[in-house]
Amino acid sequence: MIQKGAPVRRLGLTASRNRPSHFTSRFTVQGTLGQGEFSQVDKVEDKQDGVLYAVKRAKKPYTGPRDRLRKLEEVDILRYLGKDGGHLNIVAFFDAWEEAGHLYIQTELCPCVDFSSFLQHFSNMGGSMDEARLWKVLRELSEGLGFIHDMQVLHLDLKPANIFITEIATLKIGDFGLATRWPRNADAMTSSLLNHTPKSLEREGDREYIAPEILRGGFGKPADVFSLGLVMLEAAGDVILPDNGEPWHKIRNDDFSDVDLSAFSISLVNVIKSLLRSNPEARPNLNELRQHPVLQAVGR
After folding, report:
1. Which residue from 275, 184, 284, 194 is spatially nearest to 234, judged by alpha carbons?
2. How far is CA 104 from CA 49, 89, 258, 295, in A?
3. Which of 8, 178, 190, 208 lies at 20 to 30 Å from 75 by C-alpha?
4. Catalytic residues
5. pLDDT score recorded for residue 31
6. Domain locations along the chain
7. Contact partners, residue 189, CB within 8 Å, separation at least 6
8. DSSP type of residue 180
9. Where does the record locate the signal sequence feature (predicted)?
10. What's the CATH number of domain 115-298, 2.130.10.10, 1.10.510.10, 3.30.450.20, 3.30.470.20?
11. Number of alpha helices (DSSP H) and beta strands (DSSP E) in the chain
């Protein structure tokens, strides 16, 4: 079992025919929070103290040593981001372990819906979010993503489904399955475990939220900034983002004519557009974004 502060390479709890599953012996599953092609997230209750958590478990075993090390990178990053108390706007990490070649990751439970479901609720009610709420969303996400970047990590999969809401309406960024330390030659976990310095990076999240440079192999912090801009565009415009075709290309070429943002201030619209500039170098970094006077005022 991985304990807080222990290096990832010590992870090694493996269920066998003679050993009961750590997952089933420690937790009671109360329901499924979500699932994808590769993993499932359950709402669980600790049998010892009754505390609720979220546990992400892989659906399939590792395909080999390299696949295992790649997936353990998520654990390394969660623990790294959580040291010294972590950050208010990032889902907290508690534990991780392996059973029969499957990885389990235990994090805090955000009991409300994810941001994707929240946006769908607003859309079903016949409208988009008001401007004050949008500024609050932008402030909390910029704080969380800014902390991630300050720690020299890329998220690379920022989207509403990976943003979670607490019972007091705080937004938290989660699911670091595609995240990586950056720059890669500073990736201590991967370099030490593979005994070499990685020369390439293969990460590609959902096309709806992906920065154009990612498809050209251009990884970096601006890619996360672009994804943040798309989250804000979706929230403000009450739109379903395209995953291909002309509308997809227009958004990535500074053309937002398909999205009606006329109900919002020039200040908010300009911020959203700045995050979505096609030139990665022209986008603001998170430190610059957090200094915006409106975001400063919202944070007081």
Report:
1. 275
2. 20, 22, 42, 37
3. 208
4. 157
5. 95
6. 8-108, 115-298
7. 8, 72, 73, 76, 77, 181
8. E
9. none
10. 1.10.510.10
11. 10, 9
